[in-house]
Structure formats: C-alpha cells, structure tokens
Amino acid sequence: MAELTALESLIEMGFPRGRAEKALALTGNQGIEAAMDWLMEHEDDPDVDEPLETPVGHVLGQEPTSSEQGGPEGPGAPAEEGRLVLSEEERQEQTKRMLELVAQKQREREEREEREALERERQRRKQGQELSAARQRLQEDEMRRAAEERRREKAEELAARQRVREKIERDKAERAKKYGGSVSSQPSASAQPGSVPSSPSQEPPSKREYDQCRIQVRLPDGTSLTQTFRAREQLAAVRLYVELHRGEEPGGDQDPVQLLSGFPRRAFSEADMERPLQDLGLVPSAVLIVAKKCPS
Prior knowledge:
The protein is an alpha+beta fold. It has helices spanning 6-12, 17-26, 32-41, 66-69, 88-179, 203-209, 235-245; strands spanning 2-3, 85-86, 212-218, 224-230, 257-261, 266-267, 285-292. Pfam families: UBA_7, UBX.
C-alpha cells in the first residue's frame, strides 16, 4: 500500500515541487483543488518559482502534526493518525481525477480568456466606431463652416455691387441736379467713331432686343475683369467698377484710368462717360482696355 499526500498528488500531475509546496502553503492546505486553482491563476507570475519562507519545523505542502501544533496530545502522539492509505489502483484513479480536474480548469481558463479577448475586440470596435463618427462630425462641421464662409463672401460681394450701383445713381442724380437735366440730352449728340451704326433699321432693334451687356476689361498687368451691366447704364459705371476691383498697385495711390476700345481703336473721353453703353456700341458685349490716365 502507498500513501498519497496532497503534495505528492500535485507532483504526480506534473507540477514542479516548489510550486506545489507554495500553492498548498498559500491556500492554507485546504486541499488539492484550492492549490490547483492557485497554480492555474498564478501560472504566469514572474515570481511563481521563488521559494516561500515558512516557519521553522513546518514543511510546505503538509499539514502540521499535533506535536508541531503543540496540541493536547503533546510530543510523541501518533503522527500518522487520520492519514489516508491508498492502494496503487486508488492512487492511479485519484491521479486520473486530478488530471481531469486540471484539464477542466485549463478549459475554463481558455474559455475565460476567449471571452475576455472577445470583449476587448468589442470594445476596440466600439471605440473605432466612435472615433469614425467623431471624425465624420468634424468633417461635416468643416464643410458647414466652409459653406457659411462662401455665403458670407457672396453676400459681401452682392452688397459691394449694390453700393457701387447706389453710388452711380447718386452721382447721376447729382449731375442731373447740377446741370439741370441737360445730361440726359447728351446721348442725342452726333455719332462718334466706334458708336453704333445710325441706321434706323438697326438701332431700334438693338435697344429693344438687348437690355444687358457683358463687358470684359483687360487690366495693364494682363489680368481681366468681366461684369454684366444694364444696357442703359453709363460708361462711368464701368470705370467705377474697374477702379474698385483692379487691385492695389505697388508704390502708392491708384492712378485714374482711361478706357479704350479694342477694335476699332478708340479712347473714350469724359463726355463718353455720361453716355449709355448701348449708345457707345458696347451692347451686347465688348472688350475694353484699361490704360493709365496721364494727369493733365
């Protein structure tokens, strides 16, 4: 007959002796299953194989004898009393049950780790979705701000155009008041080079057919401006638009500009500035050239 202690059972199942003794001691010698739980739980600890300091006379993995405990039986009491004596067959059966228990604990541990891995993956995907949603919200906010900025710029441009038109209307009213309404009679003067042909069969249809004209203005630096004006607006409106939009020139104040027609070549005078665009032959479209006006 062979005696099988808890320590021997753990060693029989393949656990190192030092680990088995440490597990039994730290679990208070509550049995093989408690020791196995500890071993499975602390398998990856870096200090799992470090020896555990124990009181003098106490052997790791064994229950203290009555003489070590100082019990009422005192020294010399039978130390073997109550210890199980197993046959070889029973010992093998117990080892088999312990190995099955180890396998079960290992499966439980693997299942727990798998659940934890799934949970970590779920959390990672959730964080990824939240990050993607936050990035999308940021892009939408940027697009909304860009659209608002474009609307604001367009509103400012329309407001600037409106101010130009209002200034032109005020200038017209002031000139009409200053000259007693004689300004409106100037378009009836004799035709000048480059004006619309005076043929009765062509001029009336031009006035009736076109109420707007598209003017392209070429600046001295090679750039150009394009704007649509009413056919009855004066050429001064075009000059004012150019002065407001031609940009700053290096070297100080802006010089006054002079408008020229491309073909036939013609320089428009101050008197021409008071004439409607359609009377100057600039309807429905025309190309004008800006030259610096030499001061008199």
